[in-house]
């Protein structure tokens, strides 16, 4: 598997070729006027007691889940896998998609599509990335004062999706 695409690289390459030649603009400048959206992939990882694994970033004041922003031409699933390797030193087989959440612009950050995948159960994970101060396992309600309200809502939906087997779509953490 390539770092950019989590599926079979040969199948992906064949799919790209099947699309045909690169699309050209029929009206110059249309593409450059389009909104720039970012995307991110993360994982809901729990321990055997059902607590959620949070990373403790050194570069911001709140906890987050393992994962991060996609790089150029990288899928959200591939970004989640890459970030889990970088942050935790783990190679996990990600489970199904649990939540797609749109978040609005926040300061310098563009609006974003956040994808949360099932990261399964991992006990005793440790931080391997110098950008992290550590990891902590917390019940979701315990984490509430240490995470953004939208992340709390998103993870509540992710846990519900895990139980029901049906992915959820949300906007700013509120199911639509």
TrEMBL record:
SUPFAM superfamilies: Nudix. It comes from Lentzea jiangxiensis. Gene3D superfamilies: Nucleoside Triphosphate Pyrophosphohydrolase. Its cofactor is Mg(2+). Residues 7-160 form the Nudix hydrolase domain. Pfam families: NUDIX. One of its GO terms (molecular function) is hydrolase activity. PROSITE patterns: NUDIX, NUDIX_BOX. InterPro entries: NUDIX_hydrolase-like_dom_sf, NUDIX_hydrolase_CS, NUDIX_hydrolase_dom. This is ADP-ribose pyrophosphatase YjhB, NUDIX family. Keywords: Hydrolase, Magnesium.
